[in-house]
Fold each of these.
Amino acid sequence: MHSSISSLTKARIAIIGLGYVGLPLAVEFGKKYPTLGFDINKSRVEQLQAGHDSTLEVSDQELQQTEQLSYSHNAADLANCNIYIVTVPTPIDEHKQPDLTPLVKASEMLGKVVTKGDIIIYESTVYPGATEEVCIPVVERVSGLVFNKDFFAGYSPERINPGDKQHRVTNILKVTSGSNAEVAETVDQLYKSIITAGTHKASSIKVAEAAKVIENTQRDVNIALINELSIIFNKLGIDTLEVLEAAGTKWNFLPFRPGLVGGHCIGVDPYYLTHKAQSIGYHPEIILSGRRLNDGMAKHVVSELVKNMLKKRIQVDGAKVLVMGLTFKENCPDIRNTKVVDIVTELKDYNIEVDVVDPWCSGSEAEHEYGLTLTPNPKQSTYDAIVLAVGHDQFKQMGPDKIKTLGKRQHILYDLKYVLPKESVDIRL
């Protein structure tokens, strides 16, 4: 059995979810095919219709170059499409279990509009098997259609790197897959038509799902190792960056740096894989210990800071600390699952007053997500300690002298991101 979309000239594409992943994809497809960008968030749709993207992934100029792209928050508008690409978030809940609610809801909605011959392609990160075990049965139940006979599926994991202007959707190689050989070929050709870097056709949807989830798990475990080493070197009084630079002169040493592991990918994806592994009776050792170590870095950072404040006889109780940066990575407004929040929470446990400054972050979003009020203009000579938590260009441009003017005469400057020269800071991670 095959899809009715034998030729891509008939493709009418819908992108479900217009966040960091969906919008850049919609823009590229909208240059070649009739494309509908769909999001349940009405204000997001209106903002895009007005020609602006608040995530800053797509410039206003780029948004204007897509004549065939329209936007909607009304699910009925999806009915005239025949290829549906799902790019909704896949978060974890407070128990660190996969939360597939957005995927299930998107699948229910598509079950109402999907017709014979249509293809649904999922891009959201999941554990191997989730597309066929969780999403497809929902579409079947709602639509009354039979999978791989009436409608078809594909999986092509997103590889968007928020804030990265070098690695864009078109120049990152794309893994593709389909629910049978013919659909896999159609899905592959569809992506090939917009991705200049080319594609890699996986043998099955499960293989493509597994590939995605291990890309970030590998990074997570590598960073956990470096974080553990930095804790050891710290106790030995050795500078971690100097050690990494020395070891890095060997051709096959991997250039990882210690740090906070947040964001919606590296800090989340491993839990999807470990959840699936546990459900089949295997308890992952390395992946979960890496996760625990990375999740505990905020505690380590704050205890180091407090120790150093005590050494300088700075009173900790009631102290004022400035945290520079809130987003999960530099030069990007994304605050999802940022680990800087854990530092703020940990500092407050010591009864420390915390101000947070971040030129990239929306004040209303910080308030809404974390109940934090940003400090737009920190005053000079105010802080007992300054924590440089995110390496935004604005902070690099300030340089050590300007940053230090924000501290009291006696203060601690803690550089988590190796932004400043070693001799100008009190502690580095």
Note: Residues 205-236 form the longest helix (32 residues).
Amino acid sequence: MTERRIPRYRDLAPLVRFERPFGGLDHKLARAQTIWDLRELARKRTPKVAFDYTDGAADAEISLQRARQAFQDIEFRPAILRDVADIDTTTTVLGKPSQLPFGIAPTGFTRMMHTAGEVAGARAAARAGIPFTLSTMGTTAIEDLAAATDPQARNWFQLYMWKDRDRSLALVDRAATAGFDTLVITVDVPVAGARLRDARNGMTVPPSITLTGALDAIRKPRWWFDFLTTEPLAFASLDRWSGTVADLLDAMFDPTVDFDDLTWIRDRWPGRILVKGVQTVDDAKRLAALGVDGIILSNHGGRQLDRAPVPLHLLPSVVHEVGDDLEIHLDTGIMHGADIVAALALGAHFTLIGRAYLYGLMAGGESGVDRAIDILRTQLTRTMKLLGVGSIQELEPAHVRLLTSTRGNRHRYR
């Protein structure tokens, strides 16, 4: 029979670890193990109107849900007994090296999420050795972003086609002069999507403080302090605007844009060109014939057409048709490093993250973006090791199987 005794301090001491009940921000970021953890921290620190602008999508948000579900439905097929002591996550994107197979996608109105805004994202991207994309709807000027980052940083500029062509060309010229090496032309915004969360929250530019917002502000004082004590929030490339973002998009963007418009932009821009928002094989083939350097399979993070094609599902068909003619990048729905691995295995040359980076930004500014990138890097590396893959170049379709959800949470193979 086991003899009982009273535990002694020297026996208990190694087992007990006390944590500060109210850890600082660095402590909270370090405890975040997933992008979803950063999302929850961001939700607690950011007013609802700003959080929902980032988190939300169009109409019933089905496009976003399906894009994320597609990654969850991936079945990996690991190889065993492979030497994976050293993992190489580097790749080449549009002729230049990237330390990781993902970059930061263009996001609008970024200083509303956190006053550090695009500069925080660009600096974090530069440290990680990956590209950062500045949006036409950004809140930092082209020249200011270039000045705030290392000269060796790789910055891309995203262009929306305006009704005023001269103003569009002026932005293109400014980006080239500032040293941006790639132009990302977004083509899926003839009109604004129905972003219902923003409408219900009374989202305006600049943000206005409603009674509900004022009550919310009491619970998020740090955000409001930063907002009220830093440079006024505005679109850096646009005239001052007062109203909803949807009204701005409808007033500014040109629904008559066609393939001929891409031709004259290509002739004007000295660097590489990506076309973002491709959602059919036929359009991918037409763009390949036009001679662009790459395309981004994207449904705009689900923020435009609801029930749009899922980029991951579209990827194998596009790779089959034009994979040898141009680079194929992918965004929408990426929330885990394993999502990136799946896209690369199915033939994507590169991926882009939007919300995943913004959750980090809202959670902790520049340090939060660093943490988001680090989380994805760790997950990416671990997944590659578990698959028995030592480099990005070794990933191939045999490593994954696409499943399609059916009723009863069962799956059929695709």
Note: The two ends are 60 Å apart (CA to CA).
Amino acid sequence: MNEKDFQYILTVAQCGSFSRAAETLYVSQPSLSRYISTLEKRLGTTLFDRSTTPVQLTAAGTIFCNYGKKILNLETALYRELQEQNALEERILRVGVPHISGDYILSRILPRMTKKYPFLRIDPISDYSYNLYHQLAAQKIDIACVAAPNTDPSIMVELLLYEPVLLIGAKSHPALENYDITHVDIEHPIFINVSELNDIPMIQYKNSYAEAALRQKSYAPKSVIKASSAPLALELAAKGVGFTSVIRSQLKYGRLIITQSLCPISIGDCKLPIYLAYNKLADKAIPEINRFIQEVKEEYCDASGL
């Protein structure tokens, strides 16, 4: 059985005439009739009732056509998927991520993408959110996770989630010795008067998303230590140097040897919005963008945060 067998039978059934089907198939009518007669002998059954006008399918012919349509549809789907796979082998998806949360976002998405699309290469670009928007507008990157709202009409933005922001310090820090931190974790931070920590240095990594919320709680540390990176800020806090603010994913997906020694402290309803952003023009030109969006949404669909 081959594709030609199904096409010939389906065409005759659709046209209701061997002569009209021959014209559609660009073959002679005698040649088509001989081909179908030979096929019927091979199958051991009659597919058409030739005594009627137009010709009608027999019961066996109806079964043959039903399976023929399914097989041809599967064959079309196979070719389409193979073409898409070949296209993926040549595709590089440029993904922009924010400095602070980018590594933690990609650590969840990349395993999904590489498993489903092994020939699609993700090229991560880390930058500030406003720079990522500029790169999207210039089509220098394909899609981005950003931590700031958009004002460019050429960029499509979807809210992904809200990242809770926490204050953290070493569990062994003297400032926490009077608090019960036995069952504290990132889902259950302790609630304290953060103004009591003003005498302890604040470790800052670039701009703190928690500054406004902390000021509202009268948190005004007398000294500030500048850290060059988020991992360094966590490590200094773990060693008892001071306190720092983090997004929850930094604790959830950071190095256990460090995060397990840290105590998360609530600073109220302080959350950082994370958006998915992409250029409206690129969305239609690069199908991999939709695949990336789908994987991100499936990964985070059941999560209120990272």
Note: Strands lie at 48-49, 56-57, 92-98, 121-127, 143-146, 155-170, 202-205, 224-227, 244-247, 262-279.
